[in-house]
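As a warm-up, study this chain.
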Amino acid sequence: MDRGKKPGKFLGGSSHKIYMDLKDVIREQALQYLPAKSLFRFQSVCRDWKLQISTPFFAHNQSLSFGSILGIFCQAPGERPLFLSFDVNSCGVPDPLLEFIPEPVRVLSSSSGLLCCQSCSGEKAYYICNPVTQRWKKLPKPNADHGSEPAIVLVFEPSLLNFDADYKLICAFPSNDFDDAIEFDIYSSREGSWKTSGEICFASRALVPTSGVYVNNVVYWKVQNGCILAFDLIKDRSQRLQGPFIAKGTLGNMNGKLCLASLDHRSLSLYVLANVHSNTMQMSSHVKMWEEEHIVLDSGILGGDVADRNVVFVGGRVLVIQFGSSIYSYDLKTKETKALSGLITYEKWRCVPYVNSIVNI
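Now compare it with the structure written out below.
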């Protein structure tokens, strides 16, 4: 009888031991999947959590583990940046105006928690910063003239084996040597310098500078004639793609594929790049370059003048729409619509998605 009771006591002790180990599992394995604002709040839980969150190794793991878009930076010409959070309780930055940078800047691009900004006056210098840690770096002057509205894209992909935040800036600019041609200037943080690619894309019209997006080693921009310009970072080659020819369409990254989203009278039209080589297929082939999907949105967004609505960001499972002076986010999975702001009073403004990361630079 006594022998039969011992296993029960042993199991109770084992259960208690598992419970104690679970606290360590949460600290070591779960915290890294949270946004930065939540992590800073959780530093007050206990000394062990504070020490864990403050280590460079944890910052590296969080940049690898957390990649959700939880807000956008909005900025009109001549105005200060405005940060709109999808969830104010968990995602935010201590200085949305970016006043920790030594001069006024405009936000141009973002990637995995880092922002690319440009000074508003003087030499128009580029800055890379993390708005959470308020750390920044001023980049050297480019080799080429990027123009007053640089079509620039920041590319930062955290690496498991590399603790340094290695990033690149890719800028497509009009060629000074050839008419109707586009060249590409690339900055590498690893090399600390700019390099102009030998690739030149001829017979290209002006790019839409705010349209740049990065998807799987390729940077894409909208061209004003309706095409899409692609620049492959691995092959160092450019290509023009025939787009769905939507005047107000917005490029984005949808589950690792290039997409283009626009609003019509009653729904969202979403085009996903399926096959860039469809134009080389035989005439009887049914392979299409773009796959089209229509999504019916909330009636509150669909109301009003069509010309007054515009998709300003699409990526992952989130859609951001400007409706007059209001900004809405729409979750493509849960179908939830959320009002972010009603303060936008400018037509020409840039919208940059943001990941709440504590990555070091």
